[in-house]
Amino acid sequence: MWRELRRFRPADLDRHDIAYRAWVRRQMATGKFLAFVVDDGSGRPVASGALWLMPSQPRPGPLGRGEVPYVLSMFTDRRHRGLGVASRIVQEMIAWARARRYGRLVLHASRFGRPVYERLGFENGSEMRLALPGGRQARRARRSRARAGRA
Ligand SMILES: CC(C)(COP(=O)(O)OP(=O)(O)OC[C@H]1O[C@@H](n2cnc3c(N)ncnc32)[C@H](O)[C@@H]1OP(=O)(O)O)[C@@H](O)C(=O)NCCC(=O)NCCS
What confidence tens digit (pLDDT) does each residue in 10-41 have? Predict the structure, then answer.
């Protein structure tokens, strides 16, 4: 997914893969991460997505569960795109969350994913963000660009 969304260096993607795998395993062990996988009928996965039950602060009303289902890692193999597979995965996620009486699902949409989510009723929310160019991530990216330049 990240390879298609942004131009990360292969080394960054490899590092991320290891870190993400370890994180997913920890989340799955506590029941806070669910994978939704579609196969081609012969067991070969062609699309998947995940729901992470993300911790959230206590708040009044029906959203005060202490966690919110967060949709992430949506990916459909190129040869199976445009067939409604990702839409079906998200529909299953919605049904899963509705059956457990969660008050909402949240996600960050890529430009590819946005139409899929909008069609299913997702709307822009109130999240705002502030980029901090001097932050650790930016410094690390600058250092790795400099290393790449020297190599
Ligand atoms: C985003 C992504 C997961 C969508 O996967 P997909 O399986 O092709 O998605 P869908 O088939 O459900 O929907 C895509 C299109 O197929 C069309 N479609 C065809 N048959 C359909 C059906 N039966 N039901 C719903 N949509 C259908 C939809 O109209 C939709 O068209 P639109 O996007 O132009 O409105 C895929 O493009 C992808 O992996 N992109 C790269 C990674 C990425 O961006 N991930 C999302 C991060 S938020």
Answer: 999 999 999 999 999 999 999 999 999 999 99
Q: Do residues 63 and 104 make contact, with C-beta atoms less than 8 angstroms apart?
A: yes
Q: How far apart are the first and last CA of the chain?
A: 27
Span from the CA of 84 to the centroid of ligand 1 (angstroms)? 6
Which CATH number is 114's domain given? 3.40.630.30
Give CA–CA dist 146/143, Å, rounded: 5
The count of domains in the chain is 1
Distance 82 CA to ligand 1 centre (A): 5
pTM: predicted TM-score of the whole model, two decimal places: 0.87
How does pLDDT run across 32-75, given as a tens digit for each residue? Answer: 999 999 999 999 999 999 999 999 998 888 777 899 999 999 99
* Domain limits for position 57: 2-126
Q: In what order do the strands lie in the sheet with 67-76?
A: 33-39, 45-55, 67-76, 106-107
Domain assignment of residue 139, yes or no: no
Atom of ligand 1 nearest to the CA of 87: 12
Instruction: Give the C-alpha separation, 89 to 86, whole Å.
Output: 5
